[in-house]
């Protein structure tokens, strides 16, 4: 049986497109450990990111109930349950885009250290807090879902 290039091209167009999904990454460049808790419809276990190079990486996912995921980061072990100051890297995977945000509650745990939330795709916007304090207003940005979006603490 012989297939023409036109037929093969049409067949390929019918096949579902498979696109890799990127990652949410947190890098701790601070001289102290930090504590990260994953929160969606439920709360995951706390993860310690060691000082000067500790990393956390997860593949972007969509929470079936809340939609979004929050990576809550404190300087205090058990800080999320204790109401300690938190920096929150939130994301939502939706319709081929990754929506990402940086916010804080109960204070600014990384002041005066810089925070940078940057996608691997340099055409997408970066969020940068030079003094580790939210400038206020909406910090929501978006990029293609196959981008890795990295929060660097003490950037």
TrEMBL record:
<dbReference type="Pfam" id="PF04681">
    <property type="entry name" value="Bys1"/>
</dbReference>
<protein>
    <recommendedName>
        <fullName>Bys1 family protein</fullName>
    </recommendedName>
</protein>
<keyword id="KW-0732">Signal</keyword>
<feature type="signal peptide">
    <location>
        <begin position="1"/>
        <end position="20"/>
    </location>
</feature>
<dbReference type="InterPro" id="IPR006771">
    <property type="entry name" value="CetA-like"/>
</dbReference>
